[in-house]
């Protein structure tokens, strides 16, 4: 397997990651962060770049499916976790890509309903998913370069044409706000979903490749994709910050991206932005539906019928949920993310570290404590945080909605110390 395959895989990974949230979240983050944009960028890239790429490295190590991420806890836990993640993926981020495409790529150019957009969109998604053996080549060779060129045009024009004058930040805790906003990209979840798609795609193309060869290719591709994501996210956040005095303070995520595009790309902005949004969203939807269909196919003894039915159901659900506006889908997603994201992050970290530090016992202890300490953040995201404040105020980092971090770290250390031989 040569450097060309590594490059194609890296491009495909970038494109499968870079979807609706990845495009619309960073500019508004930068716009609101002002002179503290770099703190927000660090937080955002921690949860939206570092953790997802560690997820790809874990996939390179495991070379299985998402099921392998949680099997050290228990087979039942792993199965439930997989079903929950895939259900969330096809019910929220996948339809959101169609909603963003309609609002930003179709509506400004044509008088068309969101239903027509979603129908055409998910028919095309279904065609790509059914022809899954060609996904790596089409996405990696053709779609990703188009996405990168347009993004870099927007960022470069802003950086080289504007004075570096920033307004004040709206965030009291810019770093933690960046981390939590990174949740909305779904990239950590995307890592365990699309990582499996990459594994299967490579297996289909390079059936004779050894474990070590595939591990090397996937690992290098993951790092290259991560560098690309970091560059784009930091660039978009900086771009948003440079326009901190150019728009109304309550401007929406989609509107600010459109406004920045018009100011940087001029008269060609509408067409170029439409192409960018369509490509970025489409590749992510293909990755999510393919990953879900692959999983269900594996649960039904590699049944191609199960694969096709799952793909069809995922696309129908995408059409239905895609009728809601982007802001509503993001708001609905928050409670689910506050609960499932910490668990996903912990599973990624435990799978990427050496096995001697992640025994089944340590796995179970750390995952269980993470679930327990994620519950208050989940309840808070539902609007009931005040009702349990008296019972949770002692939890470290609770005010940053990351109360699970230190307990999980403490249990990880204690669990490993307890398992070290004495003498």
Automatic annotation (TrEMBL):
Q: Name one GO molecular function term.
A: L-leucine transmembrane transporter activity
Record's subcellular location: Cell membrane
Q: Which GO terms describe its cellular component?
A: plasma membrane
**Membrane topology per record:** Multi-pass membrane protein
The record's listing under InterPro entries reads: Brnchd-chn_aa_trnsp_Livcs
Bilayer-crossing regions: 36-60, 72-92, 112-130, 142-162, 182-202, 223-243, 271-293, 305-322, 328-350, 362-380, 400-418
Q: Does the keyword Cell membrane apply?
A: yes
Instruction: Name a single GO biological process.
Output: L-leucine transport
Which Pfam family, giving just one, matches this sequence?
A: Branch_AA_trans
Protein origin, superkingdom: Bacteria
Transit peptide as a keyword? no
Q: Which keywords appear in this protein's UniProt record, sorted alphabetically?
A: Amino-acid transport, Cell membrane, Membrane, Transmembrane, Transmembrane helix, Transport
Give the family from UniProt. Belongs to the branched chain amino acid transporter family.
Q: What's the name of the protein?
A: Branched-chain amino acid transport system II carrier protein
User: What's the source species for this entry?
Assistant: Flagellimonas nanhaiensis
- Name of the gene: brnQ
């Amino acid at each position: 397997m040569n450097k060309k395959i590594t490059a194609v895989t890296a491009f495909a990974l970038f494109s499968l990651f870079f979807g609706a949230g990845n495009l619309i979240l960073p500019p508004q983050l930068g716009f609101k962060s002002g002179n503290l944009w770099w703190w927000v960028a660090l937080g955002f890239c921690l949860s939206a770049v570092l953790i997802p790429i560690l997820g790809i490295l874990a996939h390179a190590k495991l070379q299985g499916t998402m099921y392998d991420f949680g099997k050290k806890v228990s087979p039942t836990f792993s199965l439930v976790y997989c079903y929950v993640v895939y259900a969330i993926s096809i019910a929220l981020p996948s339809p959101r890509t169609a909603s963003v495409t309609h609002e930003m790529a179709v509506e400004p150019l044509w008088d068309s309903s969101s239903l027509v957009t979603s129908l055409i969109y998910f028919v095309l998604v279904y065609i790509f998913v059914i022809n899954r053996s060609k996904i790596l080549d089409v996405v990696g060779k053709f779609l990703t370069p188009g996405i990168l060129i347009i993004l870099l045009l927007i960022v470069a024009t802003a950086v080289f044409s504007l004075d570096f004058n920033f307004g004040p930040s709206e965030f009291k805790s810019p770093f933690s706000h960046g981390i939590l906003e990174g949740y909305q990209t779904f990239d950590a979840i995307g890592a365990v979903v699309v990582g499996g798609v990459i594994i299967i795609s490579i297996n289909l193309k390079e059936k004779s490749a050894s474990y070590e060869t595939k591990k090397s290719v996937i690992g290098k591709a993951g790092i290259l994709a991560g560098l690309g994501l970091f560059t784009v996210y930091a660039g978009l956040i900086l771009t948003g910050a440079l326009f901190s005095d150019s728009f109304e303070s309550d401007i929406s995520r989609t509107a600010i991206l459109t406004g920045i595009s018009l100011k940087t790309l001029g008269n060609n902005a509408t067409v170029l932005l439409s192409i960018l949004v369509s490509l970025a969203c489409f590749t992510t939807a293909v990755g999510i539906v393919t990953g879900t269909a692959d999983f269900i196919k594996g649960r039904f003894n590699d049944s191609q019928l199960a694969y096709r039915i799952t793909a069809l159901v995922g696309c129908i659900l995408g059409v239905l949920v895609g009728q809601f506006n982007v802001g509503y889908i993001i708001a609905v997603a928050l409670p689910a993310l506050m609960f499932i994201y910490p668990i996903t992050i912990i599973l990624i970290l435990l799978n990427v570290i050496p096995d001697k530090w992640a025994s089944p016992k340590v796995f179970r202890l750390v995952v269980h404590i993470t679930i327990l300490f994620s519950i208050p953040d989940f309840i808070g995201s539902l609007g009931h945080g005040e009702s349990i404040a008296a019972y949770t105020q002692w939890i470290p980092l609770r005010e940053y909605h990351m109360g699970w971090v230190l307990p999980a770290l403490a249990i990880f250390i204690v669990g490993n110390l307890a398992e070290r031989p004495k003498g």
